[in-house]
Design a protein that fits this description.
Elements: H1 18-21, H2 23-27, E1 33-34, H3 46-56, H4 69-82, E2 91-94, H5 97-108, E3 114-117, H6 124-131, E4 135-138, E5 142-143, E6 149-150, H7 153-159, E7 164-170, H8 182-194, E8 198-202, H9 223-228, E9 229-233, E10 247-250, H10 254-267, H11 275-283, H12 286-313, E11 318-320, E12 327-331, H13 339-349, E13 352-353, E14 355-356, E15 367-371, H14 376-393
Helix pairs in contact: 3-11, 4-11, 5-6, 5-10, 12-14
This protein binds pyridoxal-5'-phosphate (PLP).
Length: 394
């Protein structure tokens, strides 16, 4: 039975929403239709807001400890969804996945050492190590004839020298929505383990596999993987609670875990804020599972709508069908525009704010990333505007 209404309009302007309230600052026009930063325009589900509200009704917000069921709710959720038996002591709260990446870089990568990334990929994978004065080594993904991507193991072997200490993996992959297969992950684990490279497996999109695809946690593919990885996860993308800031790390290996947990504890970064466990427990529940399923079916419908619309009306723009999450990687190269021409087409001509592909690094040129987690009617309006704009330059 359909319980949740994803067609319900929610006015997010004036709520401190990055997606809406930073349009002037980021794109120079507050009236653009925002289809960029990766949160959803769907209301955070009522069982989460009710749980938060119940705590707000007690109007004293002093120092807190997490409720005992906090870590159990994460363990059960991961086991039920992904079959991974996470032990309690492998887990820690972390204050955000990007912050987790920054912390891991500081703990494990010396100033003269390097971090490998596989662009096009979520831009903080590059910016966070660079901002911390670590060198970044590129192993670009290979684009296959059908528009899908593979990891380039030959190039990885060529670029990974003995200064490479870490590889950051987007699993599933943002921006192309790839659910990595077991063989690829196991091969990556073999390579990294043999070179003493720590794999940061960012699994923030893991609960949003689409069309029957199945997410495989990196740590579960082999003993080598478990021995060399730190996994980061969160309910923030799936349940639209990024603003609450509730994330976790999972480290099966004793030695890696001891070092990371010691550093987290020394800086008290492992201590959740009051609302993080409350929102997480409410999300990782039976109601959460029902909401997640209904949300994903709606997102699949949106992605199908975008594919049909582009094929029929804007054949110059070819969307890659994501295997996970709500981000659609648009191949716009047939428009024959350079970077400025492409951004101007979307922003100035069509009045749309998308993420421009170049920000995701090598291989992103000529692409745009569209956030499909919005009302179907908004997508229709956006694509109508894009069709007219493309029509004017044909
Ligand atoms: C792959 C990936 N990792 C991390 C994040 C952000 O996580 P957080 O808000 O916990 O830093 C995003 C958000 O778009 C993402 O796509």
């Amino acid at each position: 039975m359909q319980i949740y209404d994803f067609d319900k309009p929610v006015d997010r302007r004036g709520t401190g929403s990055l997606k809406y309230d930073a349009l002037q600052e980021r794109y120079g026009n507050p009236r653009l239709l925002p289809l960029w930063v990766a949160d959803m325009d769907f209301e955070t589900p009522p069982f989460i807001t009710d749980a938060l509200r119940r705590r707000l009704d007690h109007s004293l917000f002093g120092y807190t400890v997490e409720p005992p069921e906090y870590f159990d709710s994460i363990i059960k959720w991961i086991y039920d969804r992904h079959g991974w038996n996470v032990k309690r002591d492998w887990l820690s709260f972390i204050p955000g996945v990007v912050k987790g990446i920054g912390m891991a870089v500081n703990v494990f990568v010396k100033e003269d050492e390097k971090v490998i990334i596989q662009p096009p990929v979520y831009h903080p994978f590059r910016l966070t190590p660079l901002g911390n004065k670590r060198k970044v080594v590129m192993n670009p993904l290979k684009r296959n004839g059908d528009g899908t991507y593979s990891m380039d193991f030959d190039n990885l072997a060529a670029v990974a020298d003995d200064k490479c200490r870490m590889l950051i993996l987007s699993n599933p992959h943002n921006p192309a929505g790839i659910v990595w297969d077991r063989d690829t992950l196991a091969r990556l684990a073999r390579f990294c383990h043999s070179r003493n490279i720590i794999v940061i497996s960012d699994e923030i999109h893991c609960d949003m596999a689409l069309w029957g695809n199945r997410h495989i946690p990196f740590a579960t593919v082999s003993e080598e993987a478990a021995a060399c990885c730190i996994t980061f996860g969160a309910p923030s993308k799936t349940f639209n609670i990024a603003g609450i800031v509730s994330s976790y790390s999972i480290i099966p290996d004793d030695r890696l875990r001891a070092r990371f947990h010691e550093w987290l504890a020394a800086n008290e970064f492992n201590e959740p804020t009051l609302f993080a466990p409350i929102a997480t427990i409410a999300a990782f529940s039976q109601e959460g599972e029902q909401w997640r399923n209904q949300m994903l079916r709606y997102v699949e419908g949106n992605i199908g709508f975008i594919a049909d619309y582009c094929r029929e009306n804007i054949p110059e723009i070819v969307p890659l069908r994501p295997q996970a999450s709500f981000l659609v990687w648009l191949d716009c190269r047939r428009l024959g525009l350079d970077h400025d021409g492409l951004t101007s087409l979307f922003v100035k001509e069509a009045g749309l704010a998308l993420n421009d592909g170049e920000m995701f690094g090598l291989g992103g040129e000529g692409f745009m990333r569209l956030n499909a987690a919005t009302r179907r009617a908004v997508l229709e309006e956006a694509l109508d505007r894009l069709r007219s704009a493309v029509g004017r330059i044909r």
